Amino acid sequence: MKKNPVIPYALIAVIGIALVIVISIVGIDQREAIQKAEEGGDTQQSAEDKGEGASTDDPEAIFENTCASCHGADLSGGMGPNLQKVGGKLSKDEIKNTILNGKGQMPAGLVPDDQAEALAKWLSEKK
């Protein structure tokens, strides 16, 4: 008695169809959760998800969350310029202006005004 060569392909097709159905059902649930969150129905969204992960009164935390990816965790630079002695080159107001309005490849509006003030004060002390 010979084995039917179509049976393995049929099994693979049935398993594949079942897998697609399961993934679709999971995806529908995720889509509903995302829509609910966008409509404001999910009030448990963390502060970091909203871009408010750093406290206004902790400029080091603000820098770590917003600026360190370009300027380096130790202010030594990377994609962005070195900020270790920026206070010796720029005033607090000039630093704040750069933070709020951007400069070169640095985009504007990365942090709100109160956080920009705290960051500018902290960076102006780096001399």
From TrEMBL:
The keyword Disulfide bond does not apply. InterPro entries: Cyt_c-like_dom (IPR009056), Cyt_c-like_dom_sf (IPR036909), Cyt_c_BACSU-c550-type (IPR012218), Cytochro_C550_firm (IPR054780), Cytochrome_c550/c551-like (IPR051811). The chain crosses the membrane at residues 6-28. Keywords: Electron transport, Heme, Iron, Membrane, Metal-binding, Transmembrane, Transmembrane helix, Transport. PROSITE patterns: CYTC (PS51007). Residues 54-127 form the Cytochrome c domain. GO terms for molecular function: electron transfer activity; heme binding; iron ion binding. Binds 1 heme c group covalently per subunit. Residues 36-61 are annotated as: Disordered. GO terms for cellular component: membrane. Heme c binds at C67, C70, H71, M106. The keyword Electron transport applies. This is Cytochrome c. The lineage of its organism: Bacteria, Bacillati, Bacillota, Bacilli, Bacillales.
